């Protein structure tokens, strides 16, 4: 696994040196994080998010790094941004639950650095300290969530002259961040047909794009 990460890291570093504005910065930061290069991963993800402010996967990577640093409140803030962009994102929901469960367990343990337990919880019998510590250890030792990269990121994305028949949300966000609002609009129209369960979200994005196309 270490060799695989090393190869991936070198490949991404070389690619980004030639294409500094690529959205692959999120995967690069995630690989750095997995290799324990936390500070470097933080620099990469924060720099990338300044350009790609609507890139939900990047916010998830950022949240993972913040959680590792113990900055759970900031992680929650970024995960909530993800849910605004992608309301059905299960990864964001999982990480939010993980943080909230951790905070709840700390309160039960009597950690005064956390917000005090509500009056209802205070009336409940506190579990044995050893039991709480065991649960906390399980959370702290849980394997980090592996974010599967979008296969579209393996290639340098070049906006086509016409919108392709195969479309993804990743393609939409890239077009949006590049200011190609007309093409992003076309992608959304196809996504509505492709994923009718997310129609409400796509329609909200379409209304937003209309303000950009016809200000």
Characterization of this structure:
With 215 residues, the chain is mainly alpha-helical. It has two domains: 2-140, Serine Threonine Protein Phosphatase 5, Tetratricopeptide repeat (Alpha Horseshoe), CATH 1.25.40; 157-213, no CATH class. Helix content is 67%, strand content 0%. The protein contains eleven helices and no strands. The longest helix is centred in the middle third of the chain and has 20 residues, at 90-109. The termini are far apart.
SSE topology sketch:
Layout (H helix, E strand, L loop, with lengths): L1 H17 L6 H10 L3 H14 L4 H13 L3 H14 L4 H20 L9 H5 L5 H12 L28 H9 L3 H14 L4 H15 L2
Helix pairs in contact: 1-2, 2-3, 2-4, 3-4, 4-5, 4-6, 5-6, 6-8, 9-10, 10-11
What fraction of residues sit in β-strands?
A: under 5%
The beta-strand count equals: 0
Quickly give the structural class.
mainly alpha
How many structural domains are formed by the residues? 2
Order of helices and strands: HHHHHHHHHHH
From the alpha-carbon coordinates, what is the Rg to the nearest angstrom? 20 Å
Distance between the termini: 50 Å
Mean pLDDT: 76
Question: Looking at this structure, what is the CATH superfamily of the largest domain?
Answer: Tetratricopeptide repeat domain
């Amino acid at each position: 696994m270490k060799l695989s990460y090393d190869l991936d890291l070198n490949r991404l570093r070389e690619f980004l040196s030639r294409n500094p504005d690529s959205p692959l910065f999120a995967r690069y930061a995630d690989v750095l994080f997995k290799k324990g290069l936390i500070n470097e991963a933080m620099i990469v993800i924060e720099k990338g998010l300044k350009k790609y402010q609507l890139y939900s996967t990047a916010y998830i990577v950022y949240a993972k790094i913040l959680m590792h640093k113990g900055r759970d409140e900031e992680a929650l803030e970024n995960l909530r941004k993800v849910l605004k962009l992608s309301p059905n994102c299960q990864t964001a929901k999982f990480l939010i639950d993980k943080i909230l469960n951790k905070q709840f367990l700390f309160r039960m343990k009597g950690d005064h650095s956390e917000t005090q337990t509500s009056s209802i919880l205070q009336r409940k019998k506190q579990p044995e300290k050893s039991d709480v510590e065991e649960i906390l250890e399980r959370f702290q030792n849980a394997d980090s969530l592996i974010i599967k990269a979008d296969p579209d990121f393996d290639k340098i994305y070049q906006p086509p002259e016409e919108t392709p028949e195969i479309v993804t949300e990743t393609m939409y966000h890239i077009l949006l961040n590049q200011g190609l609002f007309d093409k992003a609009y076309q992608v959304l129209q196809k996504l509505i047909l492709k994923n009718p369960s997310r129609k409400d979200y796509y329609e909200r994005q379409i209304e937003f794009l209309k303000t950009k196309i016809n200000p």
